[in-house]
Structure formats: C-alpha cells, structure tokens
Prior knowledge:
The complex is a heterotrimer of chains A (about 375), B (about 450) and C (about 600).
Chain A: H1 2-19, H2 22-46, H3 56-87, H4 94-115, H5 117-120, H6 122-149, H7 158-179, E1 184-185, E2 195-198, E3 201-204, H8 205-227, H9 229-239, H10 241-246, H11 251-277, E4 279-280, H12 286-299, H13 304-326, H14 338-352
Antiparallel strand pairs in A: 1-4, 2-3
Helix pairs in contact in A: 2-13, 3-8, 3-11, 3-12, 3-13, 4-6, 4-7, 4-11, 4-12, 6-11, 8-9, 8-11, 9-11, 12-13, 12-14, 13-14
Chain B: H1 2-23, E1 54-57, E2 63-69, H2 76-91, E3 103-104, E4 107-115, H3 120-131, E5 136-141, H4 145-158, E6 162-165, E7 183-185, H5 190-204, E8 209-214, H6 218-234, E9 237-243, H7 252-260, E10 265-267, H8 274-285, E11 291-294, H9 301-307, E12 315-320, H10 328-343, H11 352-369, E13 371-372, E14 378-381, H12 382-390, E15 395-397, E16 400-402, E17 414-420, E18 437-441, H13 443-447
Parallel strand pairs in B: 2-4, 2-5, 5-6, 6-7, 8-9, 8-10, 10-11, 11-12
Antiparallel strand pairs in B: 1-14, 3-4, 12-17, 13-14, 15-16, 17-18
Chain C: H1 5-25, H2 27-31, E1 35-37, E2 41-42, H3 43-59, E3 63-65, E4 68-70, H4 74-102, H5 104-108, H6 116-122, H7 132-151, H8 154-172, H9 177-184, H10 200-219, H11 221-234, H12 236-284, H13 293-306, E5 310-313, E6 316-318, H14 328-347, H15 355-374, H16 379-382, E7 388-389, H17 405-428, H18 430-440, H19 442-447, H20 452-478, E8 480-481, H21 488-501, H22 506-522, H23 530-544, H24 553-560, H25 574-583
Amino acid sequence: MGTVTQEPTRGGQLGRLERLPWRRIILVVLSVLILAVVLVGAYRTLTLPEDQAYSGARWRNFIILGLAQGSIYALIALGYTLVYGILRMINFAHGEVFMFGAFGAFFFADAYEESGFLDSNPIASLAILLTVAMLTSMGVAVLLERVAYRPLRNAPRLVPLITAIGASLFLRETARGFFGPQTRGFGVPTALEGTWTIFGIPVDRIQVLVLVTVIIAMTLLSLFIARTRTGKSMRAVAADSEIASLMGIHVDRVIVTTFAIGGLLAGVAAVLFSLTFESVNFFMGFRPGIAAFTAAVLGGIGSITGAALGGILLGLLQSLGPALILTGYEIPSPFQLKDAFTFFVLVLVLIFRPGGLLGTGDAEKV
Amino acid sequence: MRDRRYLAILALISALTLVAAACGDDDDGGGETAGTGGTAATGAVDCEADEFGCVEIAAGAPIQVASLLSISGETAFLGTDSNNGITLAIDDLDGSLDATPGQVLGHDVELVQEDDGCSAEGGQAGATALAANPDIVAVIGTSCSSSALGVADTILGDKGILLFSPSNTNPGLTSEEAHQPFYFRTAHNDLIQGAIVADYVFNELGIDTAATINDESPYADGLAAAFRGRFESLGGTITAEEQVNSADTDLGPVLNSIAEGEPGAVYGPNFNPVCALTATQGLDILSEGTVQLGSDGCLESAFIETAGELPAGYYYASSPDLTVFAEGAFYKDEFLPAYQDQFGSRPTAVFHAHAYDAANILFQAIEEVAVDDGSGNLTISRTALRDAVQSTADYEGVTGVITCTPLGDCATDVTIGLFEYPNWPVEGGEEPADAVYTDTKTLEDVQE
Amino acid sequence: MGVPSRSIWRGGLIGAIAAIYVALVGLYTRFADLELVGEQITLGRLLLVAPALVAAYAVTRPRVVAGERRPVAFGRGVLAGMLTGLVTGAVFAAAVWFAEWFGTDRIREVFIQISDPLIAFLTFDKGVPAGLPILIALSVLGGTVGGLARTAPAQARAPLAVGTLAVLAMALLQRIIPIVFVELGFEADWLYAPSRGLTWFGAALVFVAAAGVNALWHRSGERTRERVRSTIQEAPAAKLGLLVVIIAVLAIMPLLLGTVISEVLGQVMIYVLLGIGLNIVVGYAGLLDLGYVAFFAFGAYTLGLLTGAFLNTTTGAAEPVLSGDLSFYVAIWIVALLAAGLGLLIGAPVLRLRGDYLAIVTLGLGEIVSIITASRWAQPLIGGPQGMRGVTKAEFAGFNFQDNPQHFYYLALAFVILALFISWRLAGSRIGRAWNAMREDEQVAEAMGVSTIRFKLLAFAMGGAIGSLGGALFAVNLGSLTPTSFELLVSITALAVVILGGLGSLPGVVVGALVLIGLPGLLREFEEYRLLIYGGALVAIMILRPQGLIPNVRRSRELHEEEVEQDAWGVAEPDDREAVAAVLPGGGLGVEREDLE
C-alpha cells in the first residue's frame, strides 16, 4: 500500500516542474538557432568571392534540377499518402512497386530502341511504355496488398510496418534474381533529347515532360477523389472505415482500388524516372522510396497537396541545401550529405509541426 | 528413480565433452593434423622448426589452393572473372589451354572457392573458414581491399597462409605500417594508376584544371586521392573534390556544382552505375569539351549497356594494359580465345590476368619448395613457400615482368593504359580495343 | 474428413507458381549441384520436391467445420497430398515445356536465369518432353510426403520429421562440420564425402540417431517430463545445477566447435547485444526505432578513437583529430556512457511522435549517422570511406580477443550476460512497469502519473548504451572499420532479430540472433539469397506468428488484439484495466494478470 500513496505525490511534484513552459522555451531557442545557422550559411555562400561563388545560371540549374527530381518524388509520394490515408500504414514496399514498373517498361523500351520504333514513333512508344509500367506496378501493388497486407488489416501498427519492410526486401531481391544485378540503360527517344527554351531559359525536354505529367496527374487525382463515387468512397473509408462499411461501402474493394491507383502513379513515376536518369536497376526503388515517403511525411501524410508539396520541397532541399547552406560552412563534399541534410530538415519540421507542414499541427493526429 | 537417470546422463555428457575438449587441438597455428601422427620422413624439410608448420599432401590427393574472391552480389563480376583466371592457370599446367587441368608435381590442383563479400565481415568470415582448414596451401584473394586490409591479411597471415591478391589496389595494404608478411599482390598499387591518369590528363591532353568525384568505397577514395596528389604536383589545379553515394542516381546537383569551377577534366574512379551516370548526366551539365575519366572499376560491360552512345573523345577509362608485353601475343592469341571458349564470354573485368599470374607464381613456388618423400607424399613448409614467392624476380607474366618486393607489391612495373570509350577491352566494347595511351611506372616513380 | 477439391486445385496451383518462382529467381541453377546426401540427392532436387510438399502440407490442414476443428484423416490426407503434387507437377511441367518451345534465349532477355542447362536440370537431362514425367512424379512424391507429414499418426510424425530435419541440417553444414572434426582431431570422411555432402552411411546414422532420441523423449511420457520441469522450477538446487550446466556448456562450446563456428557465434553475440538494446526501446517501451545503426556505429567508432585506432589513408596511416590511448576495459564504459547521451539526444526530438512518424524519424536519424561515417566532412576524425584500423585487441591475461575467435566469443558472452541481467532486472522493476503502461496506452499512463518523457528518454538511453556495446565489440573483433558495415541493413536486421524472437522476450532475442545471424553465417553458400530469405521470413512471421518464436505472454496478447487509442477509429475498453493494473502495486509482467480478465 505504501507504493500507492507515493505515486500521487510524485505526480504532484512532477506537475510543478512541468508547469514551466520548457517545451516552448526550447522550441523558441531552437528555432532561433536554426534560423541563424541557415541564414549565416546562405549569406556566406552568396558572398563568396567571384571565383568560388556560383553564378546565377548555376543557381537556376540547381533549382530546375531540384524541381524535376522533386516532381518525381511527388508522384511517388502520392502513392504513399493515398495508402496511408486509408489504412494508416506506410507502405514501405512502394519503392519496389515503382521499380517493377520501371523494369516492365524497360523491356519494351529496350526492344523498341533496337528496332528503331522508339525514335520513329516517340509518342506511341511513350504511351505504350507508360501503360506497361502502370499495369506492372498496379499488379505488384495489388498482389502486395492481397498477400502481405490484407491478413493484417486489424493488427497493431507495428505489424504491417514490419511486413512492409520485409516485403520491400523480398521484392528487391526477387528483382535481382529475376533480372540480374546489372544496371541497364533505358533508351530515350531522340525527340526527348536536348532542351526547349522556355522564357529564355534552356530546360531539358524530359524535365518539362516530368513537370507537366506531375501537374496533370495531380489534377486528375484530385478530381477523381473529389468528384467520382470511388473517390468519395475512398474519402469515407479514410475518415472512418467501420462507419463506411455500415453505409454499404465495400471496404475491401476500396482498399484494393487505392493500392491500384497508387501503383498506377508509381508506374508513371517509374517511366519518368527512367527517362531522366536513363537507367534501371533492382535497387532503384530504395532511395527514391525513402525520399518519397519522407516527402509525404514532410508535407503532412494523408494529404494529397501535402505529398506534392513535400515532394517538390524535398527535391529542392536536396539540390539547394548542400549548395546554399553547407557550402557556406566550407564543409567538404557537401552533396554527399544531401540525404542527411534532408532527414535533418524532416526532424526539425516534425519537432515544430508533428503532423507535417500541411498537417493539423496536432500531435494526436497520428 | 527417473530423475537420477537423467542426472546420470547429464553427468556422462558433461564428462564426455570435457574429455573431448581436453583432447582437442589447441589452435596454435600448426598446419599439421593431430591424427596423422607426426611428419613424414623428409630429410630436407624441418617442419618442427618452421613457426607455421607444413602442409602435408598425401600421394594421389589434390593440392588444395583456395580463392577468396567476390563471387556474389554486385561485385560478382570481379570475383568470377578472377576465378576464371585461376582455372585457366590450372588448365595451363599441362602446357596448353585445352580445358583439361594439369598437375603440379604429379598432384591434381583443387580450387576451393570462398566468398569475400567485398566487405570486412565477409573477408573475416571467409578467411576464418580457410584458416581453419590445414590442407589449404595458399589463398588467392581478395577481390576488394576492404576485405583484406586488417582482416583477411591478418587472419591468414597469423597462420602463415599465403594471401596473394589479384585485384587489391589500395596503397595501404603494402604500406610500411600495415603490411602483413604473408601478403602479396600482382595487382598494381593505386598510387601508380592515379599518377598515370594524372600524367595523361596534364601532359597529353594538356588540361590543367580537374575535379574528382568518388563514391564511398575505399577503392574510389584512394584512387581519387592519388590522382589529386599527382595532378597538383605536376602543377595542375583541383577545382572540386566531391563525393557521392554508390546508390545515388541523381548526380545532377553535384555535377552542376562541379561545372561551376569549369574543370577541363572530371575524374570519377568509381564503380558502376555511378560511372555511367556521371558520364551520361555530365554530358548535359558540364560545359562542352569537358573530358571525363574513369578507372578499372568503370571498365566493364555494364557501363557500355547503361551509357550507350557517347561523343568521341569524351570518356576514357584507365586499366592495366595487357597488350603491350612480350607475353602480349600469348594473351591475345591463346589466353583470350580460351577464356571465351571455356566461360562463354569475353572477360567481365581485367583482373583475370593478374589472377592467372598469381596462380602461376604460386605453382612455381610450390614446385620449388615441396619435398617429395619418394612415394608421392608432399610436404610444403609455409615459410619456405613464402620466401619462394617473395624471391620471385623477373618473372614474365601476362601482366608484365614481375618482381616481388618485401612489402608485398609484386607488380613493380605497372603498365596502365587509357582506353577511349567505346573501344574497351571488355564484352560489348568495340574493336580495336587498344589503349590510346600507355605508360609504365614503378612505385618509386610516384612516391618521390 | 476429406479435403475439398477446390482446395487441392488452389494449393496445387500455388505450388506450381512457387516452383516457377524458384526457377526464375535462380535457386535451381545455383544449387543444382549442391550435394546433400551421396551424389543423387542434391539441394536442387530437394527444391523440386519442396513446393509440392509445402502445398500439400497446407492443403491437408485441419478445417473448422461447424465450430469444430477437424483434422484430415490419414488415407484421405495422403491422397489429397498426391493430387496436390500432381497439379503442381503438371502445371510446372507445362511451364517448362512452354519455356523450351518459346525459346530460352528469348526468355532470358527478361528473366536471366532461364537457360538450357536449367531446362536440362528440370528434365533430368532427358529433355522435353521425355523428362517431364519424372518431374511430375517427383512432385507427386513431394505432395505425398507433405500429406503424410500432416496426417500421419503422431507417434510416427515427430521422430520422422526430426530425423529428416537433422539429416538436412547436417547436409547443409557440410562445409563447417568437417572442419570441427578436424580441429578436434577426428576424421570425418565416414560422415562426409570430401568437399561434398553426407555419405549414405552418415545420413542414415544421423537419421536414426535423431529420430531415435526424439522417439525416446516422447516415449518417456508426459509425466516424467512434467516431473523434470517441476523439479527444475521448484527445487533451488536443481535450478542452480541447471544454471551451472548451461554455463559449462556455453564455456566449452568454442573449444568443441572450433574457430569457424566460434567466429559465427561471436557475430551472433554481437547481434544479441543489439537485440537486447533494441528490445528495450521497441519491446519494453514500445518506441519503434528504425535507426538503431546509429548506436552501433557510434559504439564502434568511438571505441576505435578512444583506444588509439588510426585512419587509413593513401599514404598509409594518419592520426585522427581526436584520439585517445585507453585500454579497452576503461574505454568501453566511456563509450556506453556517451552512447546513453546520444540516446537522450536522439530521443529528445521524437518525444511527441508516435507510430509511423517515430519510425521514419528514427530511420532518418540512423541514416544521418550512417551518411556521416562515410563523409569527407568527418574524415579527419573517422577516416571517411577508407575507414580506420588498429582498434585495440583488448588483450587480457593471455586472451587475445581480436585474433582468436574463440577468445572473442568469451568476451562477447560476458557482455551479453551483463546486458541480459540488466535488461531482465529493468523489465521486472518499476521502470519496466512504467514502460508497459506507456506502451499500452500513453494517455492513461500520463494520467496515472507516469512521466512518459522521462521513461521514453530512459529507454533510448539504455537501449543506446547497450547497442553501443555491440558496436564496440564489433570493432574489437574486426580491428578494421569501414562505413559499409554501418548501413540501414543493420537496423533492419536488429529489428528482425527482436521481432522474430518475440517482442519483449529476452530468450527470443537470443533465438532470433541465432536464426538470423547464426544460420547465414554457417551457411555461407546461401549468402546471395540471404536478404531474400530475410524479407520472406519477416513477412511470413508477421502473418503467421507475429508474437515471435518465444513470445512474451503479455505482448502476444497485445499483438493479437486490436490496438487501442492510437488509431482514430479504435474503440476498446478491456485493456484499460491492464494498463491500470500495471502501475498498481504487485503488477507483474503479465502472467498473473489473468485473474483480471
């Protein structure tokens, strides 16, 4: 009985200590520090002597590269955010869904490149590549859901997360076994090589294609979610799956549809990625996968605009971060640290806004 | 009643295990098996006095030579290729490359293959397994420097087992501080490769500004550092030293940053796919006329597959140049065709030749020091074997004239060639796959 | 009770898909020649039989009919197994025929493992279609065995299964066991053909021995086993005796098993340490940490720095910017202390995060450390890509822990025992109970006066300290450190060890490490497929047995119930009582709480 009387008193003592606004003090100090570090770094970079500084054209390049990479991340992040919204789980294996789509497209691209079809009919071949990639990714995503996630629908959060990690490993190694460890070259149609000049700035044609595709995809997706019946069902299930099923919504079917759409988007991203970097290999889904769900979390997971915003922001961070801030501190080889920089930003964002940038800012939202 | 029986059984088992432990061999570096009961009558070999003991090979039993190479994973192309070189050496023991293995001193040669995993842990696991086997005469390996440095070279060296590497190029392995007495290599020291490439860029191409970009492997880091050292001592300027991750695909920003410094050349001594990606992405980002160079890690079929078409004079890769020697004719006319015949493709890497030479030097050393007791049983003293290898001088191998030094570098005269893409001497490369520039240097040349 | 035919078709089809998968991923090509017993039974052939076997085993499972669990009758079971095998074999054979007809060269442009040698192997060198009946027959055999395995009478089943598994295990260890024999001074060629698999005689011997022991064990009856167990549990003398025997066995093992197995056991011990530490964070406190590699790397490099390791450079060696020259036995405690500090640093920003957010942030923090180890920024301190070497050998009284795997095992064992003890005491203490409360329901715990902030930080600190011990031992063992050893895979493996063994279960961590590190260490022929097997095993465990191999009773109940509170739509009451009970006096680790149900 002695221990029972101790506890409440301890609670009282803790209460007094906790009444000091420690949290707020630390947050304020932290934000000032970070702001200082960023500004000082940027200032030092921008005021480097002529021979060491980046030119305006370089900064423009950094930004464009960041935007292009970021849009691909955004596309992949959309898949993560959709699944999370419905199932409250992060599909770790989404990167591998993306990778399989790329391989699917690759085999066709390879054949078309050899036969010359790729260069003679770029639009037709692109359409076919996109379709193949979308179908492959969709297939893998739906299979994944059926085999690995459906049995665990009601399990505590930890279980599907571990399953997803395992599935990611399994799919990656399967691809290595099927297709070999070598990186393969992805053919680019000549029509897409080179640059277009937009507003006097030369931009890679592929980068334009990526940006345009992402905008189209996002618009279509938003319209789909907002206007169609399936979209509404998805929103209903995301809000409360039990009540949704009571209202007659076939929850299982909705979940499969969600995975399918996520896969579809990943397939599109796969083709764009392969065209941009002209290569596919079995581990190509891993880093973009982590980057993409970091982006989704950054933007506020569960939110479509959040995913897009997070993706673009991440791309810019990876490009500009080392260039703008780390260079100022004369850190050698700053670009090797780009992922570290990105994660650091993620930690910071989640300290201040645990729900992500477009999240509710409320810790309990998780 | 039953409890006592169980206790009795437990006691018996414990007693047995204690007895077994007491009778077991303590590992004291001996090469002898306790069961064989002493050395064979061999007047000329004093195994007792040899700190590391001897290897005994019974009549009719094969001579077991092991390989500790990267035979799995992404670097499998390296290890398999070297294993093929060793197999060809065994084949050639009978004087011809005819797919029938030859013999050493009347004994077959058996190749025991272990995986070095291209990592320290892999090297440790493989080396421990080999060190525990008293029948292994010597080990040819490792593929990756990280498996050898401080790991495989020490574990095997402590048991007096020779470790002869066909592809370790990290300078540290044969440095004063770190060299292990039983370690040798026919592969070149990367100080030489980096220096020759630097010479080419500065003297031949006339470029005086360069940037380096390496991935996070010790190989790339070491080679890039060697290049920079030499380039600057020639009078050149290094505009940027960048590093990336081997799994990175988006090299745009880092190349963009390098482009700012307007280097005339970008040196990326990495593995694929990073090499291929710097080549293709660099085309768009680096200014017109910038030259890119890679190293033997890049010089493989995967690069050709990924990079596809590149402008002439844009990309070069350095590699040991095997075509220029007295043995050159042998290599082109007999060795390569035999390789193609027996393994179904052209070599996937360059170090098969170094493995071939290492194996042959080993066989020669075995023939020198093995003592036959008259009825076909061989005894090989480990220390004597090592001394024999170390005293190799003016051996004409496929990779050049080989003279082993006390610090383990046997490739004293290293010939490095620069090959312009796509005329590369690997599967998928275009003929004629001849070097556009070749130079031979020794370690002293580059260490002044 | 029979098996519905629909089930047979489905099972057979899935078996065929599995067989095709095995072919596509290259397992047949890789292991076609790995002899298991004699020259005829190779691993490749075993893999031919396996899909049908597993499919049949699944098809003949007991069904629930009208609320009752009815096993399948023996005869019907074997028949069902045969039929399943037939379906698998037929479909697979059709696939092989198709591959041959379509042209292996064309298929190889996509699936690189399909080749003529593969077809030859699958048709027993008789070509298509002559070899296909043999393939189907083998499949039928596999199915029969699968059906048998499931439905045979119990007395026969266990010994036969144990015997077969023992033979399989001995056959797979064909590289290791002969070395053990040789190091002990015995000959092994009666058991193993040189550099090959088991001899027929050896296999028969192993089978009889294993099956015999198992049969005896079962025959001795439930009563005597119960008596042994109760004697051990109650009599303190018996407990002490058991403890002594366990310690004696652990001490003798390395001498018996030789250098190679001791090396593997040393690695297992390192991961046991990592598992114990991660178990505190994930298992006890319920904080999902995917960045555990941070502590591992920190422990390794800090120990190196404190004990005078130097940097690898192109010219040889260089002094790190900060360097100490302490003895291992002093440095290790400093490392643990500093790692606890790192744990506080990592824990502080993530205090308010839960579930997936926590997972990703810890992943990110782990990646940050991983990236920094390879960076040129940190190169003056820890050597960058080329790394460091010259970590102390921790020599002590004639023991050399770096050069001698058997000695290292003892060192690692000592630390493992220490960590186990600390962890066990923590679990049973007030801190442990607070962690339980926190893990089950944070809000209620806070309301009861449990300061979640303090206990979360404590979990990170303790977990970090123990994890860093693992890293430090890793450094001592290897002597040489390169950044490639400190990547995400370490975090995932550590997590897999904890999950496989059972969250919150200490014996589970040991078993998990033995399975995930010990087995691949011994079976290095499978190195290429290690990650594939890891991934598959993780998924399988989570679906089939999420509580792990040796579950912690409390946690397994949690894992089988719907999660409370942390989901927006979750609704549950019963567990509140448990959470409350956890902080009341007398609250234990779960077993005693049944009376509250």
